[in-house]
What we know:
Layout: H1 2-8, H2 22-43, H3 52-71, H4 76-95, H5 110-131, H6 137-140, H7 147-186, H8 191-222
Helix pairs in contact: 2-4, 3-4, 4-8, 5-7, 5-8, 7-8
Amino acid sequence: MVTAMLRDLHIEPSFPAAPITNAFAMELLVFLLLIIFFLVVRWRLAVEKPPALQHIAEMLEDYMGEQGSQIIGHDYKVHLSYIMALGYFILLANLLGLVPGLESPTARPVVPLGLAATTFIYYHFYGIRLHKHHYIKQFIGPVLLISPLMFFIEVISHLARILSLTVRLYANMFAGDLVTLAFFSLVPVLVPVLFLFLHLGVAIIQTYIFMMLTMVYLGNALSEEH
């Protein structure tokens, strides 16, 4: 189907049998599942008798809202939609590896890199939008004499955030998939179930860490000097 669509656009795929990677296919699947989830929650919204999905969505948003108010500050609501969408996407992408025949797209380095780069652009954009040209002050430090050195160090540290977010998520999910696959091939009964629960725990923890670090970076970019 993808090959036919590309040819209709006069794009000849290099590998017609596999025009897109497994990671990209899994990302599309995550996207479609999330759209369905959001639509179901939206269509079934109720005040008197809220359904289970609404309860789950409200609890998650309330909890992350509390974290956001403490870490980001009073403007956290502006950014809560991005943080929640990011969290839902990462969580579902992490959990996809538990389904036989599917794989976690976050176990491929390009997907965490894309998420990290998007977060990097996001918090810098809102930092510049809020502080304008004053945003550069955090890069040069208070002493003008050593400002070139400070600027270089700050730029490297901010770029290291992309590497940190990428490697942390990718390495943990790749290792989780690898361990689960190894034990399924060695002992296909009972024992791998324990590693499936371990994979579930790692998936949730890594989602939480990514969201919290995103809020920390946002809080630093938006913070006001008093």
